[in-house]
Amino acid sequence: MTRFRVSVHIVPRKGLLDPQGKAVADALHTLGFPTVTDVHVGRHLVIETSASDARQAEESVRDMCSRLLANPVTEDFEIAAVVAA
Amino acid sequence: MTRFRVSVHIVPRKGLLDPQGKAVADALHTLGFPTVTDVHVGRHLVIETSASDARQAEESVRDMCSRLLANPVTEDFEIAAVVAA
User: Fold this and answer.
1) Total-model pTM
2) What ipTM did this prediction achieve?
3) What fold does the segment set A2-84 form as a domain?
């Protein structure tokens, strides 16, 4: 078993309202960044786990995302990186 | 001016308590993922902004992070990617 560090991005599904992103974009305009056109706010998770190889680590994190970490109705997730720790 | 999509990771500073990550790790153990050793939960922001080149876009997002998006006492941020949109 090798230890892997798996990074995951969980983001609001495209087309759904992202009120937090809207609030951040408005705040940035107020602070003097008028060039900002859009902001999306999601979560960045780094999961350290043991697995026999990188594919198995990724598979297991995908399973965690579907079952606990991402809301299947409102969020999408993607595995950003799998690196041996 | 070109439009750029800049991705940022904002994570709890190393060594500081990450109660949300601890809670997620515990929940994953309960759900049947005993191989998980550690979880860190941060934010993943995607900022769409206009700039004359990629370097200027990155510089401007760095400034946004220092001034609004990241808590300088408890969080670290890194620019994960700058792509032309």
Assistant:
1) 0.89
2) 0.88
3) Mth169; Chain: A , (3.30.1280)
Q: Give B16 or A6, the one with higher predicted confidence.
A: A6
CB–CB contact A64 B1 (8 Å) = no
Domain ranges of chain B: 2-84
Contact list in A for residue B61 (CB cut-off 8 A) is none
Is the separation of the CB atoms in A18 and A74 below 8 Å?
no
Summarize pLDDT for B20-78 with one digit per residue, the tens.
Answer: 999 999 999 999 999 999 999 999 999 999 999 999 999 999 999 999 999 999 999 99
- CB-closest option in A27, A41, A67 to B45: A41
Q: Dihedral, CA atoms, B4, B5, B6, B10, nearest 10 degrees?
A: 160
With CA atoms as reference, report the closest residue to B10 among A14, A6, A45: A45
Q: How far apart are CA B85 and CA B72, in angstroms?
A: 29
